[in-house]
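Data card: per-record layout.
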Amino acid sequence: MKKIVVMGSTGSIGTQTLDIAKKHPDEINVVALTASTSVDLIEKQAREFAPFLVAMYDKKAAADLSARLSDTDIKVVSGMEGLIEAASFDCDIVVTAMVGMIGIRPTVAAIEAGHDIALANKETLVCAGHIIMPLIKKHGVSLYPVDSEHSAIFQSLNGEHHDDIEKIILTASGGPFRMRSKEELSSMTAKEALCHPNWNMGNKITIDSATLVNKGLEVMEACHLFDVALDDIEVVVHPQSIIHSAVMYKDGGIMAQMGCPDMRLPIQYALFGPRRPYLDTKRLSLADLGTMTFERPDPDKFEGFALAYEAARRSGNMPTVFNAANERAVALFLEHKINFTDIPRLIKAAMDNASFIASPSVDDIIATGKSAEEYVEQYLMNGMR
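The structure for this 385-residue chain is written out next.
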């Protein structure tokens, strides 16, 4: 029986993780759950899985949940302290599926408690990879990627030698606006941007896919996860989303992981790999598929993608500035306060304004993120001048 903590259990990855847990009741025991404000859903989850502990980031939500669960023995905690308590709870693996930089401190706490990590929180490595990866090594724990692309790379590396890697091939669907011209992008609405052609994801990551910012973030993650240089990662647009990513080796051979788009596969692999229990996902038929196509991304059209590479090359706290500015800009776009093409514009403004820190601490990262978000708001209030 594997004891798991699900951080961000009410989000897209969290709910799918619990779906997998439900199908393996003899192998997975959910011992703690966390969420931010979704009281109704986490109450249902708590009653179904009966964890020992539930943490709500929002204190009012925690008080509400505590009252609702007063007929149970489930402990309810709140705030960052509560998230850290949940991450440190006695378990085998912590699934970090929270969105945003609030995931960094709980992930650090989980590692320091000696827990393996199933990582679905991008900010953890994008902003703090220089802290997290040495910590993983120091405490002798394992980190299993949950992103479909990083999981595909992880699977393609299984049984191979790291020194034999020539390059990593990171695939991208191209998002809903792949065939749109640069001029058309400014008029794209949030409703249109949320219509991803292949994947069913949360709103924020779906917008990031539409801007290709998500792919830039994944490039930064891959550098830390697989200990490769930025120039050794090639991004390829693959609209069918069948090859989820691949590794080219020095002998010219390419190992790739393929399958129909379904986030439950990488989640389940992170929990069970290298075992592959049955999963009721759609089966891929190569004969029916017929063709797969590939093309290079267009950094001129998708400026956020180009800015991600700039942030990665500058390093230090620049990935944090990039990430935080994007997070705030995406929220403003979803609130219909800015245009789609204003997202990279706001990111660039924040990066141009930020003070550089070569080796930021966690406190520096949190402060940098807050400053970047505040600058985005200020820049918008000043008419984006």
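Known properties of this structure: The first strand starts at residue 2 and ends at 7. The two ends are 57 Å apart (CA to CA).

See the next section for split statistics.
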